[in-house]
């Protein structure tokens, strides 16, 4: 069996080589992404593992099938970059890696929560100016004195809640489907509105759907306590960024930590050193002292990357050898 791993980052190679050695598989690794220009690399391979933000031209699904390929395995949880209908029509099985390390994202959400509450941006900006005073506006609250609202109590939300409970916070939450085990460490409310009215810090942990697009808008921000904090490590489109900036300006929000932004695609994972950021809203987010913006990096731990690589390659192996995979999404 000969497999091809495309779009491989340097940090993935070591885990891919380990997987190939342990499973005695002939694995070719390239940092090229799959495109019409690189399709020839697929020739002679039995399966492919991809990791790319760009989609594929529609005709490529059939071209892959014509080369004898049965599947597309993405080394990510998200698979919205692929046209599932076109893949199915061409007889290709698309797989993802649904769970690779919820702790990675939960730990980052907690890190972001602490950083925004303790105003680390402001402190670091003063350090850069060599101003070592304790300004009055740097005084912060303690997490144990706060009520934390968790929106979405799935894998990541539950771990985030447990860690913050460990700091002594009271945890309230909303989810479309309540989790009985979570009731040991949090109290469910009947709506998002009920949570935001009571919480001092809100952390979002649900997927983006057509129902929650801009759920965090002017109306929802207006219900929040003055001086509350928002952490979003989920998806940018859940938050109306213009409304978020208004909430920060009015003092409704004291700070926000965002690992994701609704129009992040042109910027995230790219080097803009010395280049102009044309999106004025994004530029404001990365420059404000009351916003900690990070580039969709919450997942990025050694454990998560190893699990993504192994999960993606295992799915290729499963489809090539059994014509199916438990991680099939089409
Ligand atoms: P999960 O599926 O385990 O949990 C999601 C929870 O959200 C579920 O309990 C679901 O019932 C709930 N939910 C869905 N729609 C809702 C709504 N409208 N209102 C309230 N609750 C709702 O997912 P997870 O593994 O915990 O991941 C959560 C999110 O984290 C993902 O969807 C993704 O957007 C994000 N994520 C971010 C990164 C990153 O690097 N920043 C990495 C992985 C995942």
From TrEMBL:
Keyword RNA-binding on entry: no
This protein's record includes keyword Oxidoreductase: yes
CDD domains found in the cross-reference section: LDH
Gene3D superfamilies tied to this protein: NAD(P)-binding Rossmann-like Domain
Domain D-isomer specific 2-hydroxyacid dehydrogenase catalytic: 18-330
InterPro entries: D-isomer_2_OHA_DH_cat_dom (IPR006139), D-isomer_DH_CS (IPR029753), D-isomer_DH_CS1 (IPR029752), D-isomer_DH_NAD-bd (IPR006140), D-LDH-like (IPR058205), NAD(P)-bd_dom_sf (IPR036291)
Domain D-isomer specific 2-hydroxyacid dehydrogenase NAD-binding positions: 111-298
Source superkingdom: Bacteria
Signal peptide residues on this chain, from the entry's feature table: none
SUPFAM superfamilies linked to this entry: Formate/glycerate dehydrogenase catalytic domain-like, NAD(P)-binding Rossmann-fold domains
Keywords: NAD, Oxidoreductase
Pfam families with a match to the protein in the record: 2-Hacid_dh, 2-Hacid_dh_C
PANTHER family per the UniProt record, alphabetical: 2-HYDROXYACID DEHYDROGENASE HOMOLOG 1-RELATED
UniProt similarity note: Belongs to the D-isomer specific 2-hydroxyacid dehydrogenase family.
Protein's UniProt name: D-2-hydroxyacid dehydrogenase
Species of origin: Vagococcus proximus
């Amino acid at each position: 069996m000969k497999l091809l791993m495309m779009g491989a980052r340097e940090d993935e190679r070591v885990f891919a080589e380990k997987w190939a050695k342990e499973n005695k598989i002939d694995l070719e690794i390239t940092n090229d992404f799959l495109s019409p220009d690189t399709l020839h690399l697929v020739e002679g391979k039995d399966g492919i593992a991809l990791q790319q933000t760009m989609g594929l031209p529609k005709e490529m699904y059939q071209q892959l099938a014509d080369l004898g390929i049965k599947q597309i395995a993405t080394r990510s949880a998200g698979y919205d970059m692929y046209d599932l209908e076109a893949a199915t029509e061409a007889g290709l099985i698309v797989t993802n890696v649904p769970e690779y390390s919820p702790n990675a994202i939960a730990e980052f959400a907690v890190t972001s929560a602490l950083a925004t509450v303790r105003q680390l941006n402001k402190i670091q900006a003063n350090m850069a100016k060599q101003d070592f005073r304790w300004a009055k506006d740097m005084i912060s609250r303690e997490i144990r004195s706060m009520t934390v609202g968790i929106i979405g109590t799935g894998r990541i939300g539950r771990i985030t809640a447990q860690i913050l409970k460990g700091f002594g916070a009271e945890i309230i939450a909303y989810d479309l489907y309540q989790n009985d085990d979570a009731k040991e460490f949090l109290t469910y409310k009947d709506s998002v509105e009920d949570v935001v009215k009571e919480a001092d810090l809100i952390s979002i942990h649900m997927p983006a759907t057509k129902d929650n697009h801009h759920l965090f808008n002017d109306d929802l921000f207006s219900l929040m306590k003055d001086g509350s904090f928002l952490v979003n490590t989920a998806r940018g489109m859940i938050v109306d960024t213009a409304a978020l900036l208004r909430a920060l300006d009015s003092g409704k929000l004291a700070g926000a930590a965002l690992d994701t932004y609704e129009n992040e695609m042109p910027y995230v994972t790219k080097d803009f050193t010395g280049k102009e950021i044309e999106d004025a809203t994004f530029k404001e987010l990365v420059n404000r002292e009351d916003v900690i913006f990070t580039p969709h990096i919450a997942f990025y731990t050694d454990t998560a990357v190893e699990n993504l690589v192994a999960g993606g390659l295992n799915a290729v192996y499963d489809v090539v050898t059994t014509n199916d995979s438990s991680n099939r999404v089409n």
